[in-house]
């Protein structure tokens, strides 16, 4: 297992200084085109940069191969360092290159979306998508450093900010500290630091997700299906996943906590009215969630919350879940049942 990385919180000038200090030492990088204007000018002319124009669409084996060929042509060595500068799709792809090229090269990540700052860049899960599904080929491979700089958020789209808020609100259920910061309406940068730190502490204890790390999947069981079927950003799907799973298990106090956390973060509650989304065929929904790679044999695991900071797991087979969904009137509109 590679070493747990350090997280650094930098102002933009400090980040520019860091990059300037590394420009001579053969700077290899995979960078999202959209963050070009945040970076020093010399980067635009640097020959060892692989620019991504649409990271999620390029998070595949074809681009992986292209990056590997490009870096080899540019003389990459085992002692080089690869920078990943972008959102979660960029860091997943660049991290996967780093984990495999020449049997593993050091990498550093500079997350540039809210979602990647609090989640995707932390924890060393790296992957590419296959036509059969997301993140099906990947590995666990920590970067040596995570450099967080809030300035990138200034250009995040509202949809991407909302996506990041979805993960932040999830942490509001998992971490007492994050919950208190949210409820006290502390500045976003403080909340980002707390989320990143919280995730890293869990990952330190359970790198390969055989225990406690599974709690980070709160809201993801249904969330992944919504992300896939409605083509919405990851964190937005998690927010809808939280609401629907709390409704499924009739967890009134979790539903009320969700409303309070959203209000405190200024996220409009109308966003999670499931009725405004296109209804889904029950069989398509079940097929999607039971083909998710996180299923354990025929049972699907649902992470639920006893109280802030304390989770438990419920396991359901497809037929058990179907019965519960059919019996739950709150979720009927999701499947077009009147
Ligand atoms: N490895 C993990 O643990 C983990 C966890 C959660 C999600 N993920 C993965 O992360 C991805 C989602 O992450 P994401 O939401 O960051 O997606 P993303 O990387 O696709 O970025 C979202 C959009 O924001 C743009 N962008 C990035 N930084 C910007 C900036 N500063 N200003 C303006 N635009 C910017 C991107 O070009 C893209 O259009 C998915 O591929 C998901 O599978 C990984």
Question: What does this molecule look like?
Answer:
The protein is an alpha/beta fold and 338 residues long. It folds into two domains: 6-154, Rossmann fold (3-Layer(aba) Sandwich); 158-335, Dehydroquinate synthase-like - alpha domain (Dehydroquinate synthase-like, alpha domain), CATH 1.20.1090. Helices cover 46% and strands 18% of the residues. It contains 14 helices and ten strands. The protein has helices spanning 12-22, 41-45, 55-58, 61-73, 88-100, 114-120, 158-174, 176-183, 188-205, 220-230, 234-248, 252-264, 282-290, 318-327, and strands at residues 6-9, 27-32, 49-52, 81-86, 106-111, 125-130, 133-140, 145-148, 299-307, 310-317. The strands form three sheets. It has a six-stranded parallel β-sheet. Helix 6 packs parallel to helix 7 and helix 8 runs antiparallel to helix 9 (188-205). The radius of gyration is 20 Å and the shape is globular. The N and C termini lie far apart (52 Å). The relative contact order is 0.10. The model has no long low-confidence stretch (mean pLDDT 93). Bound molecules: nicotinamide-adenine-dinucleotide (NAD). Nicotinamide-adenine-dinucleotide (NAD) binds at residues 32, 34-35, 55-56, 59, 86-90, 92, 112-113, 115-116, 119-120, 123, 125, 134-135, 152, 155-156, 160, 163, 233-234.
């Amino acid at each position: 297992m590679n070493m747990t990385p350090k997280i650094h919180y930098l102002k933009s000038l400090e980040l520019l200084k860091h990059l300037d200090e590394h420009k001579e030492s053969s700077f290899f990088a995979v960078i999202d085109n959209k963050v070009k204007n945040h970076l020093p000018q010399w980067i635009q002319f640097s020959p060892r940069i692989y620019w991504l124009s649409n990271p999620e669409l390029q998070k595949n084996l074809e681009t992986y191969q292209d990056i590997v060929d490009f870096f080899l042509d540019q003389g990459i060595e085992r002692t080089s360092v690869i920078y990943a500068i972008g959102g979660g799709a960029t860091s997943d792809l660049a991290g996967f290159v780093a984990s495999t090229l020449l049997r593993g090269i050091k990498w550093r990540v500079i997350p540039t979306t809210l979602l990647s700052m609090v989640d995707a860049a932390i924890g060393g899960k790296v992957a590419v998508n296959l036509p059969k599904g997301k993140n099906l080929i990947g590995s666990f491979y920590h970067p040596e450093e995570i450099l967080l700089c809030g300035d990138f958020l200034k250009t995040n789209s509202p949809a991407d900010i909302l996506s990041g808020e979805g993960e932040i609100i999830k942490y509001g259920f998992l971490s007492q500290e994050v919950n208190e910061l949210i409820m006290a309406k502390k500045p976003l940068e403080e909340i980002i630091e707390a989320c990143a730190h919280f995730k890293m502490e869990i990952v330190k204890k359970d790198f390969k997700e055989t225990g406690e790390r599974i709690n980070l999947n709160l809201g993801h069981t249904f969330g992944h299906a919504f992300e896939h079927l409605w083509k919405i950003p990851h964190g937005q799907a998690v927010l809808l996943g939280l609401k629907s799973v709390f409704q499924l298990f009739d967890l009134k106090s979790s539903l009320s906590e969700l409303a309070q956390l959203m209000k405190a973060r200024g996220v409009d509650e109308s966003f999670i009215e499931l009725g405004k989304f296109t209804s889904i065929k029950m069989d398509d929904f079940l097929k999607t969630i039971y083909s998710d790679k996180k299923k354990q044999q025929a049972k699907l695991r649902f992470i639920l919350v006893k109280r802030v900071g304390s989770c438990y797991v419920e396991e359901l087979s497809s037929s058990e879940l179907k019965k519960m969904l059919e019996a739950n009137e709150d979720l009927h509109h999701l499947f077009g049942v009147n």
